[in-house]
From TrEMBL:
It is found in: Membrane. The keyword tRNA processing does not apply. It comes from Lophiotrema nucula. It is a multi-pass membrane protein. The chain crosses the membrane at residues 58-78, 84-104, 125-151, 163-181, 188-210, 230-259, 271-293, 313-332, 353-373, 379-405, 426-444. Residues 51-444 form the Amino acid transporter transmembrane domain. The keyword Amino-acid biosynthesis does not apply. Keywords: Membrane, Transmembrane, Transmembrane helix. Belongs to the amino acid/polyamine transporter 2 family. One of its GO terms (molecular function) is L-amino acid transmembrane transporter activity. One of its GO terms (cellular component) is membrane. This is Transmembrane amino acid transporter.
Amino acid sequence: MDEKKAGEIEPAPRTTSLTHGDVEDLHSLKAEDEFEVFKTGIDGVQFRLVGWPKASVIFLKVIFATGVLSIPTAMFSLGAVGGAFSVIGWGLLNTYFAIVQGNFRNRHAQCHSIADMALVVGGPILKEICGALFIIAYVLCTGSGIIGVATALNALSEHAACTVWWAFLSTAVIIACASVRKFEKIGWLTWAGFISVYVAVFIVVIGVTTRSRPAAAPATGPYDLGYVVIAYPTFIAGMTATCTIFVSSAGTSAFLPVISEMTNPRDYNKAVYVCMGLVQASYLTFALVVYRWCGKWVTNPSLGSAGPTVKKVAYGIGLIGLIVSGCLYLHVAAKYVFVRILRNSVHLQKNSLVHWGTWLSCTVILGSVAFILAEAIPIFSYLIALTGSICFAPLAIMLPGWLWLHDHSEYRNAGVLKMAIYYGHWLLILIGAFTCVGGTYGVIENIKIAYADGMIGGAFSCADNSNTHG
């Protein structure tokens, strides 16, 4: 490919999906490869080694991670019915927009990230805005991973050290794991991470059903379970809860850098459907069971909801998964910055000092920022919800809606059905804007209340916030 100015995107030829049994045209694939960020036919570091089964597991670990630990808490604010509809509705919407983003990327194969897509539809200013939101989102997600690992170490050690020190240790481990350069190389970690978190959550789900009363409830005497079928939350509580559920499956923009490292990017949709189908079924089942048995006494994160013994077992088994979650979030954020810096340089796929220095600087600096943010907002669900409202509402709803409008502009003047679909995407963009503004307001107000009520001991406090419940 000819050298281009920094940030310039050259249109790639549109590709179509091949049906089973079709023979791929090698010349066509070679031409398409010219528009890919990582080339396959050059000497140097080969990144495109990820098959779609491995991609689906990477997606699973990105999505089924810290989100599942906060959904039962959100159920308390929304009630069983409202919470279930929220899980299903946001899951379907996030799945749809994951497919929209993948289809757009495969039509514009030069796009490595959501920011590159923003450049195609909105120009350089929108690209920088979305790039900043992308980095903030996954740095905040890395912060939630740090909190999760620190909470696990606190539980396993019975708070043998200050929480800040556990968070610092967690950060160091996550940075070390995230510094592996290729998604293909960390693929085996995602298998272990997903299985460990899934088993840990499953143990808690079984554990809560064996207790006569929630572990966090008063040990004797009458108590209010706090389980309701239909709840009537305040605007602040409702928006915080719905943002928490939304963000649990909204990290689909992290899928896009993986496409650039897939052997065949056209297999992306298969990986998404496998991932999102399993995730949404698990979210709905696990969250409803835990909420039914724990009510308002569910802990935050929810792995502590079945008592101290099960809590230790769950955190011990799930520790690998919590580390891998933070590792993936940090890797995605660092890979974006790394590609932005070296994209038009020979060092992008060359084992040089510049290559390694740039890559390690990205992981260390962004990991350090995540540690600071994690200690500034140490209540798990609030950090998750804030990530959803500020970052993922624009990235996972508003921008994908715009991407679809860009590639389907002919729907605007077509038949009634196509016009309805076209303007329906405008409605989805407005829903994203409302979630962004309303959700951010609600979460900030809840953080203020938490500080005022003493639920948060203060920034860089040694207090363990893992026993906070609904």
